[in-house]
């Protein structure tokens, strides 16, 4: 091997990746929050704490870019929309936005991922004329879950339906992703979804090799998201969720 080639390979192996940078931001508190959130998964699915790390990195670069509080659109550590946050048990108000709390937001994201996992593991009615097509292989199902996290389960289910009607395999992400435009996504959005799945899948594999987060944490019982009792509200201060009496 030439010295030039050896130097080139050595330099390449030392190049920092996004995952390397994100892991530097993964404080003990963040790691514990992600591990606790992964308890919403189970031993039969392919979702792990590394899935959460990958989405956390892709969505907000581990909390670096979280947008504005209280907006209806995507915001917070996991870029969850207000209506989705409500579905997953969070209460977003003008006084507090738990999407910006790593404990609550990671739990909500994990619950949403598990909901999507359940929806695509069996035929699930989403609307009157739309059902998901079951994906029996858990490993294949993960890409559909990731895609639906970005685009919504309805759009992915429509792409599945179109794929099946055109003689394709609705269980193959490589085939389904080619019908995103036909399912109503703009060319820009369709490309975003395809790249999103590719990136998150790649990040997940890299986190699996480099992260010290406990992959077996998901085998423990999940903690419930706390709701504010009457007579007060929650506020997020320095990453901590604190109850304040009114």
Task: Give a short summary of the structure.
With 246 residues, the protein is mainly alpha-helical. Helices cover 50% and strands 7% of the residues.
What can you tell me about this protein's structure?
The chain is mainly alpha-helical and 246 residues long. It has one domain: Lysozyme (Orthogonal Bundle), CATH 1.10.530.10. The chain is built from ten helices and four strands; from the N terminus they run ααααααββααααββ. The strands form two sheets. The protein has a two-stranded antiparallel sheet. Strands 3-4 form a two-stranded antiparallel ribbon. Strand 1 and strand 2 form a beta hairpin. Helix 2 packs across helix 10 and helix 4 packs across helix 10. The longest helix is centred in the C-terminal third of the chain and has 24 residues. It is globular, with a radius of gyration of 19 Å. The model has no long low-confidence stretch (mean pLDDT 88).
Provide mean pLDDT, rounded: 88
Alpha-beta content class:
mainly alpha
Could you give the distance between the termini?
Answer: 71 Å
Q: What is the helix tally?
A: 10
What top-tier CATH class fits best? Mainly Alpha
What percentage of residues falls in helices of 4 or more residues?
40-55%
Contiguous uncertain segments of 5+ residues: none
| Number of strand elements | 4
Q: How many domains is the backbone divided into?
A: 1
Q: What integer value in Å does the Rg equal?
A: 19 Å
Q: Name the strands of the widest sheet in spatial order.
A: 1-2
Second-tier CATH architecture: Orthogonal Bundle
The ordered H/E elements are: HHHHHHEEHHHHEE
Overall 3D form: globular
The description of the largest β-sheet is: 2 strands, antiparallel
CATH topology-level name: Lysozyme
Approximate strand percentage: 5-15%
């Amino acid at each position: 091997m030439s010295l030039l080639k050896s130097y080139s390979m050595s330099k390449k192996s030392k190049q920092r990746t996004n995952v390397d940078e994100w892991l530097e931001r993964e404080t003990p508190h963040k790691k514990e929050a992600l591990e606790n959130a992964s308890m919403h998964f189970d031993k039969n699915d392919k979702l792990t704490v590394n899935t959460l790390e990958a989405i956390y990195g892709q969505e907000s670069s581990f909390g670096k870019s979280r947008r504005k509080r209280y907006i209806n659109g995507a915001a917070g550590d996991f870029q969850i929309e207000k209506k989705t946050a409500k579905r997953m048990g969070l209460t977003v108000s003008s006084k507090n936005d738990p999407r910006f709390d790593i404990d609550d937001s990671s739990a909500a994201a994990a619950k949403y991922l598990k909901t999507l996992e359940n929806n695509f593991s069996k035929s699930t009615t989403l609307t009157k004329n739309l059902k998901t097509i079951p994906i029996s292989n858990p490993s294949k199902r993960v890409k559909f879950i990731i895609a639906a996290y970005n685009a919504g389960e309805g759009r992915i289910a429509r792409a599945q339906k179109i794929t099946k009607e055109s003689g394709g395999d609705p269980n193959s992400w490589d085939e389904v992703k080619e019908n995103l435009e036909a399912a109503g996504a703009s060319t820009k959005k369709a490309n975003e979804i395809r790249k999103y799945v590719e990136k998150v899948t790649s990040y997940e594999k890299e986190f699996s090799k480099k992260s010290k987060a406990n992959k077996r944490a998901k085998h423990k019982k999940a903690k419930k998201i706390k709701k504010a009792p009457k007579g007060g509200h929650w506020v997020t201060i320095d990453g901590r969720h604190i109850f304040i009496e009114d």
